[in-house]
Amino acid sequence: MKAAMQYMSQSFRIKDQKIKDLFLDIAAEELGHMEMVAQTINLLNGHDVDAEQVKAGEIQSHVILGLNPGLINASGYSWTGDYVTVTGDLCADLLSNIASEQRAKVVYEYLYRQINDKKVRETIDFLLNREEAHNQMFRDAFNEVQDSGSNRDFGTTKAAKMYFSLSKPGPNAFAGNEVSAPKFK
Predict the structure, then answer these.
(1) What residues have CB less than 8 Å from 26, skipping those under 6 apart?
(2) In the prediction, which pLDDT does 45 show?
(3) What is the spatial distance between Cα 125 and Cα 108, in angstroms, rounded to a whole number?
(4) Contact 58, 159 (CB under 8 A)
(5) Measured between alpha carbons, how far apart are the two ends of the chain, in Å?
(6) Whole-angstrom Cα distance, residue 58 to residue 37?
(7) Among 31, 72, 113, 172, which has the minimal tally of Cβ within 10 Å of its Cβ?
(8) What 3-state DSSP class applies to 176?
């Protein structure tokens, strides 16, 4: 729900039609993922509301919701639009979406390792692969626009390029002395 609403909401200000369509297509697919998860749960739980079959603490989903998925998070709090990140800046939104897809992959990987049912694992594997596809599509879109919006160089000063070596404090950590940032390959 979060991903679908986030990508759809973000699409409203995108001028590039190709990127706008990408956001809307992935948003629609995320709704399909929600349906797949709900259907998988239905297949595992059956379709009959039966309070006698419910373990303690799980009665709400059977009785109050009639076996429909509750729009709640893992802690039981209602879903809210506060989960949606929309900045109006394409670069910032794309980076947020890349992170969201990566988090989804982590959750699916955790679930995959904990579940032994072959068909459920196939479903999770499919969803995990689709999240990777979305992640790659958003990264490709980011590569197209990476020098725009908040990612533009607005004329950085020396202060913007300074590195403070706070993990190894000493006389060179501050006071504008030249300290090199770590290099990553």
Answers:
(1) 3, 7, 134, 137, 138
(2) 72
(3) 8
(4) no
(5) 36
(6) 18
(7) 113
(8) coil
Q: Are 32 and 151 in contact (CB under 8 A)?
A: no
> In angstroms, rounded to a whole number, what is the distance separating the alpha carbons of residues 1 and 70?
11
Strand partners, 72: 78
The CB-side HSE value for 159 (13 A sphere, CA atoms) comes to 0
Q: What is the pLDDT of residues 16-51, one digit of tens each?
A: 999 999 999 999 999 999 999 888 887 887 666 666
Q: Are 6 and 82 within 8 A, CB to CB?
A: no
Q: How far apart are CA 124 and CA 128, in angstroms?
A: 6
Q: Could you write out the DSSP letters of every residue in 101-112? A: HHHHHHHHHHHH
Lookup: tokens for 72: 């709640």
Distance CA 99, CA 80 (A): 19
The residue behind tokens 């990140």 is 85
Helices and strands, counts by H and E, the chain: 5, 0
**Amino acid letter at 166?**
L
Query: What residues does 78 pair with on adjacent strands?
Result: 72
Cβ–Cβ under 8 Å, residues 6 and 84 = yes
- pTM score: 0.79
CA distance 121 to 114: 9
| Under-70 pLDDT residues of the chain | 46-63, 67, 151-156, 168-179
**Which pLDDT value is given to residue 176?**
55
